[in-house]
Design goal:
The chain has helices at 2-14, 18-49. By secondary structure, it is an all-alpha fold. The mean pLDDT is 89.
């Protein structure tokens, strides 16, 4: 995901149009939120798998 974020930041730096820069920033924000959600979901699955009370 870091590569995608770096590409978006590079595009943002080259873009003269404010609307396009705002769009790229929104994509970066979305990418960060989705990455966090994936990590939390993976941790939840891991936690449920190792819950000895549900065995």
């Amino acid at each position: 995901m870091d590569r995608i974020e770096a590409e978006l930041k590079a595009l943002m730096a080259e873009e003269p149009d404010y609307a396009q820069r705002a769009f790229y920033q929104a994509l970066i924000d979305l990418l960060q939120v989705q990455t966090q959600r994936i990590e939390l979901a993976a941790a939840e699955v891991d936690g449920r798998t190792w819950n000895h009370e549900q065995w």
